[in-house]
Design goal:
mainly alpha
Length: 42
């Protein structure tokens, strides 16, 4: 019983969603740190 165990090259939709979510979280943290340091060193 094989459930979609093909050797797929590329990303599945779930992998893309996880990658986008993680990158958005990282981007948000970087922007927050940048704005915080910009506000501090004025």
């Amino acid at each position: 019983m094989r459930l979609a165990m093909k050797n797929e090259r590329g990303f599945t939709l779930i992998e893309l969603m996880i990658a986008m979510t993680l990158s958005l979280i990282i981007l948000g943290a970087v922007v927050a740190a940048y704005l915080n340091s910009k506000r501090t060193y004025r």
